C-alpha cells in the first residue's frame, strides 16, 4: 500500500472536513476519495456509492469479521468502515487517496499504512462558531446538536496526533493551503521514488 500517497483529513463535527475533502478531490486529477461503509441512514441528497456505501449492521459486522476493513469505528451509535480492497486498488495505481475519517479512523490508518501517509486536522475558527454551525445544521433537533457539540469538543483534543493542522476560518483559503501542502508532499514522494529507483540499479 505504499505506491500512492495517502492523505487523511479529520475534524470535529461541523468544522467542514467533508466539504473541504470534496473540493480538494475536484482540484486534484489523480485523486480518489475512499468511500466509507456506514450503517446510518442516508441524509437528504446523499447517494449510495458516492457519499457512502449504506449497508445493514449485519453486513457491516460480517465485513468486520472477515477483516475487510482497513479501519472501522462506532460514531453516534452507527458504524463506519474503510474497505481494504478500494484503498489497495487505488494506491497501486499511484493515486492520491483521500480519507474523510475521524480521529479513531486516522489512528488506525496511520498504523497500517506506514509509508507516504500524512494526516491533516481541521479546526473551526472558535468553539462558539462550531456550536452555532451545529445548531444550524440540526435546527430541528437541538438535542442532537448539543450532543454532537459535546463530542466535537472531545474530538478536538486529538489534534496533536496529526501531522498538519489547519484552521477553517475561510473555506477557499483553507482549501488553497491544503492543496499546496498536498502538492509539496506529492513532489517530495516522487523525488524519493526516483532516488530509490536509481539506488536499486547501482
Architecture overview:
The chain is built from seven helices and nine strands, in the order E-H-E-E-E-H-E-E-H-E-H-E-H-H-E-H. By secondary structure, the protein is of the alpha/beta class. It has a single domain (5-200), classed as P-loop containing nucleotide triphosphate hydrolases (Rossmann fold, 3-Layer(aba) Sandwich), CATH 3.40.50.300. Strand 5 (69-75) and strand 6 form a beta hairpin. Helix 1 (17-27) crosses helix 7 (171-200) and helix 5 (127-137) packs antiparallel against helix 6 (142-156). The longest helix is centred in the C-terminal third of the chain and has 30 residues, at 171-200. The radius of gyration is 18 Å and the shape is globular.
Any idea what the CATH architecture is? 3-Layer(aba) Sandwich
Q: Name the CATH homologous superfamily.
A: P-loop containing nucleotide triphosphate hydrolases
Tally of individual domains: 1
CATH class: Alpha Beta
Secondary-structure class: alpha/beta
What's the total helix number? 7
- Helical proportion? 40-55%
Low-pLDDT parts are none
Task: Calculate the mean pLDDT score and round it.
Answer: 91
**Strand fraction band?**
15-25%
Largest sheet: 5 strands, parallel
- The main sheet orders its strands as 2-7-1-8-9
Q: How many extended strands?
A: 9
H-E order = EHEEEHEEHEHEHHEH
Radius of gyration: 18 Å
Cα end-to-end separation? 25 Å
CATH topology: Rossmann fold
Q: Sum up the overall morphology in one term.
A: globular
Amino acid at each position: 500500500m505504499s505506491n500512492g500517497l495517502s492523505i487523511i483529513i479529520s475534524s470535529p463535527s461541523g468544522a467542514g472536513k467533508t466539504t473541504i475533502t470534496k473540493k480538494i478531490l475536484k482540484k486534484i486529477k489523480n485523486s480518489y476519495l475512499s468511500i466509507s461503509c456506514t450503517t446510518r441512514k442516508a441524509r437528504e441528497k446523499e447517494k449510495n456509492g458516492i457519499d457512502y456505501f449504506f449497508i445493514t449492521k449485519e453486513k457491516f459486522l460480517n465485513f468486520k469479521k472477515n477483516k475487510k476493513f482497513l479501519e472501522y469505528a462506532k460514531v453516534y451509535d452507527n458504524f463506519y468502515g474503510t474497505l481494504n480492497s478500494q484503498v489497495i486498488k487505488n494506491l497501486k495505481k499511484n493515486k492520491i487517496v483521500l480519507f474523510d475519517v475521524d480521529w479513531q479512523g486516522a489512528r488506525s490508518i496511520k498504523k497500517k499504512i506506514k509509508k507516504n501517509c500524512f494526516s491533516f486536522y481541521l479546526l473551526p475558527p472558535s468553539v462558539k462558531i462550531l456550536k452555532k454551525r451545529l445548531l444550524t445544521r440540526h435546527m430541528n433537533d437541538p438535542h442532537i446538536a448539543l450532543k454532537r457539540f459535546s463530542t466535537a469538543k472531545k474530538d478536538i483534543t486529538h489534534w496533536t496526533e496529526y501531522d498538519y493542522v489547519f484552521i477553517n476560518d475561510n473555506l477557499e483559503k483553507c482549501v488553497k493551503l491544503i492543496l499546496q501542502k498536498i502538492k509539496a508532499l506529492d513532489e517530495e514522494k516522487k523525488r524519493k521514488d526516483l532516488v530509490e529507483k536509481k539506488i536499486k540499479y547501482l
